[in-house]
Amino acid sequence: MKFVKNLIIYSLFSLVFLYFLTSFLVPWSQNKSRVFLQESNIDFFPSLIGEKKFIDTVDKLTIYIEKKIDKENYENIFLKDTDNEKIKFIYADKGKLINTNEERSIKLFDGKIINVNNEKITSFDFKTTNFDLSKYLTKSITDFKIQERKTSDILDCYVNYFVLNKKYYYDVTKCNDPAIKEMQKELFNRLIKPLFIPILTLSLCFLLLFPKENLKHKLSRIIIFFIGLLIIIFSEFYSSMTSRKLIYFKISIGIPFFIFFIQYLYLNFKINTFRKN
Predict the structure, then answer these.
(1) What is the DSSP letter of 138?
(2) How does pLDDT run across 230-268, given as a tens digit for each residue?
């Protein structure tokens, strides 16, 4: 039992480290990368362009490039610019990306512009035109995903808005009714799922009950391996279940502790039984 207790202590150190990763470091790094995209505006635009792919990363703008000659020159370009009820379609045989501090645009050659406004369609051809990109921002920066938010912010919203029913905590982008499912799943992954590490550690300790001289040693190793595998599968499965109903999330808070103490009490009982024999 002393050996078992030492393993549990080591697993708790791993648990603390995992909490640091899932609750602080990973959300912080994802948040920083999103802020970097926000501050960079369209400086990362060339890396997003790929051949024969519809790129809609830029808000209100869809781009299709049939052939990419290099980072700045393209062939057969299709653009769709959406502005409320106005839609503009642009086709060009060739295009050159201008991405400097003074100008951010695509210079288009030999193409056609089609404007759709309240079901009225107008079109005209052009030899050369510039399509301004400086007014566009990536739509991915308009709101931070739940995975990128601080654990304290998620808990603050969840406890006050959903548990204590304080409606003044409502926020159209950060704290609203549709967000509850994602919040429950994220809280489970950050705070509850790591608790399965001590459970897995304790499962391995059942190998102590079957010494190598025992004929059941090999069979016990296989059984314990599958028990550990089932615990991992269960934790992944329950992660998706917590996003469905509040009752599943409430139950998930107590499940790891219940499994751990049942395991510990049974292991302690079996070891004491062998000791007496």
Answers:
(1) B
(2) 988 988 888 888 877 778 888 888 889 999 999 999 888
